[in-house]
Amino acid sequence: MTQASSVSIASYRDTPEGKAENLNLDRMQAVQAFNARLVFMNVDESSYEEIVKGVRRVIGCDCCALFLHDATRGELVLKGSVGYDGLPEGLSISCQTLDSLHAQAFREEYLIHLDDLSQSTHITTLSGDLGSNLVLPVISQKGPFGVLDLGNLEPSSFTDSEIGMCNMLVDQMSYSLENMRLVLELRNSRDAVIRGMALLSEIRDSHIEGHLNRICAMSSYLAEQMAETGGYPEVTPDFIDTISRSASLHDVGKVGIPDSILLKPGKLTPAEYEIMKSHAAIGGKILSGLIDEFGAYDMITMGAAVAEYHHEWWDGTGYPRGLKGIQIPLSARILAICDVYDALASLRVYKEAWDYDRVKKTIQDLAGTQFDPDLVEIFLQNPKELEAIRAKYSD
Ligand SMILES: [Fe+2]
Ligand SMILES: [Fe+2]
User: Fold this and answer.
1) What percent of the chain is modeled with pLDDT above 70?
2) CA of 67 to the centre of ligand 1 (A)
3) Residue ranges with CB less than 5 Å from ion ligand 1
């Protein structure tokens, strides 16, 4: 639990925005409209911040925070807050804490309203500045799964009608919140499984985690730059999000390559090289098999494309199919550049790490033969970004 004195609050009710909302006579309608918006809200990690901001706007309180229950840890974990200046990110409160309003509201599944906190010295709140505090449990059919905290600087400042509205608001938004939580949980498990597949196939290669992080970041960076040119309508925000995850699957087929070849320190014989090359087709087969069984979901569909085609060459001399130019899926053309760039810039058992100018020259020399020349130009236009990615995810 945070030290209440380290978190400060400024009045929201006195700001033009807060006043405008307070003057809104039909706040009930604002609450309804807010809940309707929640149902269609984009779900990502920033959704919770948007929710607390929306709650503060429609209720007109000074600050608001949302905690969700982490059943494994038996804790309430902060997911979003507004107006509480200095509240640590990811703050958690044990559900068993006796002097916490939040733990109590959660355990007892009951709204707690402290009208004048100066009279309640035995209670720990989120900030010592609070005059009054309202904590409501968020409950689904399966039971409580979080609490919503609303605070005001002034004591006795939540009217009965505001408390009634908060109750109604939390009741209505519990369904959207539960859905949001499930969607995020599913996404996190999907990302974990995808990363797990990529790591399993490359577990024998000790530097691989840095490489996977870097090419995921570089692929999404290149895709973002492509989108900005306006010349690639297929590169949508969804495409960028998908490639930022599925890029890590490019070498999943290495799981099928024996150690004697994959880890051989010296040069491969022509026969060994042919076996090594089969990792592209193996990867494509593994992931296409998943599509056959579970359906063509974006992440796996793109994963199958990058796994199978990341060694195709723009001039048609690559493998496994010898696809040429735009026959090669766009995601694989993006990945091919990022993969080679990162390999050249990194230390390997068979080579030292090359500096930027040497890597750039090599990639440029291969534009039009190995790589899509338009993508190479976009990729190399901002070396600082590429170096920042390499620095962020160093080995
Ligand atoms: Fe590969
Ligand atoms: Fe790679």
Assistant:
1) 95
2) 43
3) 251
Edge-to-edge order in the sheet of strand 75-82: 92-94, 75-82, 63-70, 143-152, 132-140, 112-114
What is the 291 CA–ligand 2 centroid distance (Å)?
Answer: 23
Q: Which amino acid, one-letter code, is at 57? A: R
191 CA to middle of ligand 1, Å?
Answer: 21
Same domain, 302 and 367: yes
271 C-alpha to ligand 1 centroid (Å): 17
Cα torsion at 190, 253, 362, 230 (round to 10°)? -40
> Residue 379 pLDDT more than 60?
yes
Q: Is 303 left (phi over 0), alpha (psi -120 to 50) or beta?
A: alpha
* pLDDT on residue 36: 81
In a domain, 253, yes or no: yes
Report the domain count for the chain. 2
Distance (Å) from CA 295 to ligand 1 centroid? 25
Does 308 share its domain with 379? yes
pLDDT of residue 196: 86
CATH number of the domain encompassing residue 222: 1.10.3210.10
The per-residue pLDDT for range 115-161, each reduced to its tens digit, is 998 887 778 889 989 999 999 999 988 899 999 999 999 998 898 88
Verify that 295 and 161 share a domain, yes or no. Answer: no
Q: Which of 184, 213, 230 lies at the terminal end of a domain, its last residue?
A: 184
- Say whether both 255 and 384 belong to one domain: yes
Q: Are the beta carbons of 12 and 53 closer than 8 angstroms?
A: no
CA 211 to centroid of ligand 2, rounded, Å: 7
- Look up the domain containing 259 and give its range: 202-392
